[in-house]
Design goal:
This protein is an alpha/beta fold. Helix content is 49%, strand content 16%. The protein has one domain. The chain has helices at 2-20, 25-42, 44-57, 63-86, 90-93, 103-111, 129-133, 150-160, 174-182, 214-222, 254-275, and strands at residues 98-101, 116-119, 140-144, 166-169, 186-189, 200-204, 207-211, 226-233, 239-245. Helix 1 packs parallel to helix 8 (150-160), helix 2 packs across helix 4 and helix 3 packs across helix 4.
Length: 295
């Protein structure tokens, strides 16, 4: 029964994608906003998580302001889904509507033929970076978490890979990351979610957050640059990508260095999110894991 439901859902999404690809960009984004509103109404638990996260992150805001931001956040999520389904029309719809800031950091690493660890947070439409990367680096790869619905995973993978980006399964992917970095590749990791009990705790929006240490640890061990790559949707529907070279700490033991580097990275990420507060993944329980001493 589950396989049948998964197959029907995948067929429905393929049909939905077929439909939105026949709309103008503005009309497709309006459909995305409507989809986001449906998601908001259908996902009360995620609305509650987003509301709780925003209450911690922006205690100075009124409840009315936070509710408005939750609504806007879901609209962005809906537009993200629609844009993902539009990626097969990448050249016509997106290729010329993306601005890049800080590309010199990436180009410098490419020129030196060094591998690059790229920290990719869930900002803006982070899926946009998958088809974009092949135009930014001669040999990129990205680590992905496969979806449990295999039919749906194929659709998402097809959209992400329209320009030829190599998608590496997160399970067992560390060895491929190391090999790719040693070969001078850019390796992207979506690693800004809760790091669990084995994570490294650093401040993030005024609370301690468990952070996945592998991106900074791998960069330290292999001596590669560490780039923070963020994207945000602009008011006119275009996208802006920011590259930020993260200075890696040199004082202390390995754990202290990784924690210090993570503190710098998350401070810069937080600053960007505050500029675009609706465009980060607030529906994720980011502060679920707390230090043992916390109440």
């Amino acid at each position: 029964m589950k396989r049948l439901r998964d197959a029907l859902l995948a067929r429905l999404i393929r049909a939905f994608g077929w439909g939105v690809r026949r709309l103008s960009q503005n009309a497709a984004l309006e459909v995305g906003r409507g989809l986001g509103e449906l998601m908001r109404r259908a996902m009360p638990k995620r609305v509650r998580v987003a509301s709780e996260n925003l209450a911690f992150a922006f205690p100075e805001w009124t409840p009315l302001e936070r509710r408005a931001l939750v609504r806007e956040h879901f609209e962005h999520l809906g537009m993200n889904i629609v844009e993902l389904l539009l990626f097969p029309q990448w050249e016509d719809r997106f290729a010329t509507r993306i601005e890049i800031e800080g590309r010199e950091h990436l180009d410098r690493a490419v020129k030196s033929e060094r591998g690059i660890v790229v920290f990719l947070p869930h900002t803006g439409n982070w899926e946009m970076l998958a088809p974009l990367w092949t135009s930014l680096h001669p040999n990129p790869m990205v680590i992905v978490q496969r979806l449990p619905n295999e039919a749906l995973d194929r659709i998402v993978s097809e959209c992400r890979g329209v320009t030829g980006l190599e998608l590496v399964d997160r399970n067992g992917g560390l060895r491929k990351i190391v090999a790719g970095l040693k070969a001078g590749r850019a390796c992207g990791l979506l690693a800004d979610q809760d790091g669990g009990s084995s994570g490294v705790f650093v401040p993030f929006f005024g609370r301690m957050a468990s952070c996945e240490p592998s991106p900074v640890a791998v960069a330290r061990r292999l001596g590669t640059p560490l780039l923070l790559c963020m994207t945000f949707r602009q008011a006119d529907g275009s996208h802006r990508v920011f590259f930020d070279l993260i200075p890696q700490a040199t004082d202390g033991d390995d754990n202290e260095r990784d924690r210090s580097t993570l503190e710098t990275l998350y401070a810069r990420l937080e600053a960007r999110i505050r500029e675009h507060p609706a465009q980060w993944l607030w529906i994720h329980r980011r502060w679920k894991t707390q230090p043992a001493s916390s109440p």
